[in-house]
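Dear support,

Our group has been running a series of protein-ligand predictions, and this particular one with NAP is the one our PI (initials K.S.) wants archived with full inputs and outputs. We had some confusion internally about which version of the output was final, so please treat the block below as the authoritative record. The input we submitted was:
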Amino acid sequence: MIRISLSPLSDMYADTKNTEMKNHRYDLLIVGAGFAGLYMLYRARKLGLSARVLEAGLDVGGTWYWNRYPGARCDVPSMEYSYSFSEALQQEWRWTEVMAAQPEILDYARHVADRFDLRKDIQFSTRVKAAQFDEEASTWQVITEAEEAFLGRFCVMATGCLSVPNMPELAGQEDFQGAVYHTGAWPHEGVDFSGLNVGILGTGSSGIQSIPEIAKQANSLTVLQRTPNYTMPAHNGPLSEAFQAEAKKNYAEIREHQRASQIGIIGYGFGFGGAKAMTPSQQIVETTAEERERLVEQEGFSAIRRFADVATDSDANELACEMYRIQVARVVHDGETAEALMPRGYPMGCKRPVIDTDYYETFNRPNVRLVDLRKGGIRQMTASGVSTEQGDFAFDAFVFATGFDAMTGALERIDIRGRQGRSLVDHWHAGPRTYLGLAMRGFPNLFTITGPGSPSVLSNMLVSIEQHVDWIGDCIRWMDGAGHREIEATEAAEAQWVEHVNEVAEGTPYTAASCNSWYLGANIPGKPRIFMPYVGGVGRYRETCDHVVEQGYAGFHLRTGP
Ligand code: FAD
Ligand code: NAP
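Confirmed final output from the archive:
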């Protein structure tokens, strides 16, 4: 193994000319072995390209390798949150639940790696710290934290949108004597909370999934909440053999519909949220207060799913929020706790939708209490727990369910340098700029899978991952056939795409001034407030990408040569 330290480009390239380095030269370097990296490797092999995957973790699975907290599970129907590239694979794999839990999804990722013999081209326990483009050789040099260097004609960042845990800096954290966990980097051996007094910070998807499970085990659970969230019951359950067999028969059609849909989910038969699939068809603004109250009484939170105008009209949205709060009050017994759990002042749908199992019911347990941080925030952590402006709380263990530096975090943590040594961090100083979420001006032959500016996190990510990987694979095949050595987004194409991404997001609940979501980078202090994903929809986006290809890779500059 050759080890080199980061050095100016000319020196680095001189190093790579020695004979040992030949072992480290590939057509394609792929960073990350989650679902994106695994499929990219598979596709590269099918195209006859040599490829190496570099992965920080000790195994495949990405999200599902790191996020092992109690209650972690998918919120997309299992039959749809799975690869479609292999008919044999989708026919043979058996899911046990409508929406699978983390261990099952991780097993699936491992099965894919073994079935297609992918591991031999994956280097685990290898964190990439830098990637630099050599303009003379049209080659990417990727450097790991262990100072190992790899060369690739192309580099694909499959580093994940939600792979960098956000750890808020609380004063006194180092003084805390108890155990500290982050949901996004959970211990592989699991955690036994039995008999412990546990605190948890964060009520996003990870908090809402883990709170009911931790509460069942711990002596006491104290939930520290800054912003109450909107969450709908998941209605998850076992997946019947009969249903699964039927779905497998119809897989070709299901996949086709997924690919053409808005979010890559069609809710085939069971719908988003289990058996109670419902297509919104009514207008909430046409209902009376009495009707809305009656609907909530009969159908609970699910009644809100009837209304199509909630997503498009702010008055309708506020009426839905009122219905939501009525139901919170019906479920949560203690009036003060119920009031604190009611989201107010920001629209439903501006953040990633959350679905849960017994979230509100958990606050009726005698061992669970809610601390509303809006009534007095955290001052600091102490040796025994957390000190807030409304009192001190003692814990044996503390869980950060505080999310991720999403979409840009993993990319910006790698020192990526394109033409003339310009860094990606500089290029993105005012927010991420990409063409199609796939490529950036100044960074030739570098691709991002589900990058900012693509539907990515607004979709069933398996659908988006497959589309990006296929597009990248086809592009490389075409380039090689046509004798092109470099592809790079033009300045104009990138600028127009950024403008389009912003334009379609305008006026949606996502960009409401009152919304502080990670989609906007609002969860990370100092991060530019820019709506990062593309809201135009999976189907429309795919058509755009296909059109770019039909037009001879419109918006890309191609360089030909040996
Ligand atoms: P990841 O799975 O994040 O994999 C990226 C990999 O890159 C990681 O293994 C990481 O270790 C590695 N990596 C990153 N940086 C480096 C580096 N510098 N060097 C080396 N390796 C690096 N999506 C849905 O569509 N539906 C869901 O229900 C859903 N549920 C989710 C639940 C949780 C708890 C979370 C966190 C996310 C969820 N997502 C869901 C989003 C999920 O991230 C995607 O569905 C999908 O798993 C992403 O795959 P990926 O390969 O793109 O990225
Ligand atoms: P998140 O949605 O960003 O939620 C983080 C929570 O931590 C929020 O409640 C936030 O409060 C709180 N928080 C962060 N910093 C804080 C601070 N300094 N002080 C007090 N509170 C703080 O993160 P997540 O729950 O991990 O989910 C991230 C995404 O991962 C999801 O949106 C989803 O895409 C994916 N995910 C999916 C599932 C699933 O169901 N399949 C499960 C987990 C995760 P504020 O709201 O006030 O900022």
